Amino acid sequence: MFSRQKKNSVKLLLLTGLFIVGASFLIYGCASAPKTLDPAVSAPQLIVNPETISLGAANLLGAKIIFEGSGFKAADSVFVSLIGSDGAEVAAIADGKVGADGKFTTAVGTLAKVTGILKGTVSGKYKKDGSYDQFVVLTGPPIPAGTYTAKATSMLSDRSAETKLIIKEASIGDSLKDWLGKRLGKIQDKRP
Fold first, then answer.
1. Among 95, 75, 103, CA closest to 150
2. CA separation for the pair 58, 170 (Å, rounded)
3. Per residue in 135-150, pLDDT tens?
4. DSSP string, 168-187
5. Beta bridge partners of 70
6. 144: closest CA among 120, 163, 168?
7. 15 to 2, 5, 11, 27, 30: CA distances (angstroms)
8. Closest CA to 136 of 149, 117, 153
9. What is the pTM assigned to this prediction?
10. Among the residues of the chain, which ranges form H helices?
């Protein structure tokens, strides 16, 4: 009798835990809707998806950070840079070509994530089988967590657009991913 009650209690606790985890995903917006460009706006505009990123190296390297813009001159090029709260440029993180419709889409590449945000380098070595094993070397502290202005600047005209990008400290889950990345040799931490 006691054994049956114990099994039922364990099942109930497990179901309660799963319910809490599921509810937290809904409440905290784990899968929030991506931002879209406003077609009613003809002036230059810029959006980023996702709007919030983490400073966990493994998480950041795996994240797809996409900038989209409209209202720029056709056949122009744009550069996207992060600007800190003091107005100084922190890092150039993306560039893109404007299409005939005045829109562009560009992703933040691995090198920009490593050198611009994490303040590290990318290195590698050849294996015995001839393949190249690439890894990230963290050499200094990343840019500080906070709210940054991402600014897309046109190369051929004076057009520009801005949006906010929130950078958060690495979470406990991010730290665990980074630890695993270090154990697997994909991340090397050479910070003082």
1. 95
2. 10
3. 899 999 999 999 999 9
4. EPP-HHHHHHHHHHHHTTSE
5. 45
6. 168
7. 20, 15, 6, 18, 20
8. 117
9. 0.79
10. 2-28, 57-62, 110-112, 172-183
